[in-house]
Amino acid sequence: MMVRTRWSVPQSPSQMWPALCDSRVELTPRCPVFYLGTPRPQECRLPAGPGEVGATRQCVSEQGVIRQRIDVWEPPARLAFHMEETDLCFDRFVDRLGDTFELVPEGAGTRVTRTTTVSVRNRFAAVLYPALWVGLKSVHRFVFRNWQRQAPSS
């Protein structure tokens, strides 16, 4: 399954790039799925230092951590990574979870496209894909709203 979200932010691609691996989410969620159990992102970080292909990235929520490995590192245009392990509850049924961010200049800002691909173990697929799609789409929008709010003032 694939979930793709496009969003415009006022930052340039070079201003936006650091947020992909070093940002804290400061907003209170508006979407009810976060109150129904979808993990709410709190921060993302590079725990071992600078970013590059093969580096570790972490996505932290109030429920646990997703540890990821960077597959593509092309600042300030493209970042891709995949989940290696997590202590979140969905670890029991998710086989693969990967993300790609693409940043394209748009006027004075940036058009950010986030594409998440997920696969679940066969016996869970029919039941879980709709809920995962809604949850992932909500996470995308929540993070994008946070980045939009953190835009540098002119």
Properties at a glance:
single chain, 154 residues, alpha+beta, 8-stranded antiparallel sheet, 19% helix, 43% strand
Question: Can you lay out the helices and strands and say which pair or pack?
Answer:
Elements lengths: L1 E8 L3 H4 L6 E2 L16 E5 L10 E6 L2 E11 L3 E9 L7 E13 L2 E12 L4 H25 L5
Antiparallel strand pairs: 1-8, 2-3, 3-4, 4-5, 5-6, 6-7, 7-8
H/E element sequence: EHEEEEEEEH
Order of strands across the biggest sheet?
Answer: 1-8-7-6-5-4-3-2
CA radius of gyration is: 15 Å
**What share of residues is helical?**
10-25%
What is the number of strand segments?
Answer: 8
State the separation between the terminal residues, measured CA to CA: 39 Å
Largest sheet: 8 strands, antiparallel
| Average of pLDDT | 89
**Helical stretch tally:** 2
Counting helices, strands and paired strands, the structural category is alpha+beta
Describe this structure in words.
The chain has helices at residues 13-16, 125-149, and strands spanning 2-9, 23-24, 41-45, 56-61, 64-74, 78-86, 94-106, 109-120. The chain is α+β, with helices and mostly antiparallel strands and 154 residues long. The protein contains two helices and eight strands, in the order E-H-E-E-E-E-E-E-E-H. The relative contact order is 0.25. A hairpin with a 3-residue loop joins strand 5 and strand 6. The N and C termini lie far apart (39 Å). It has an eight-stranded antiparallel β-sheet with strand order 1-8-7-6-5-4-3-2, with helices on one face. Helices cover 19% and strands 43% of the residues.
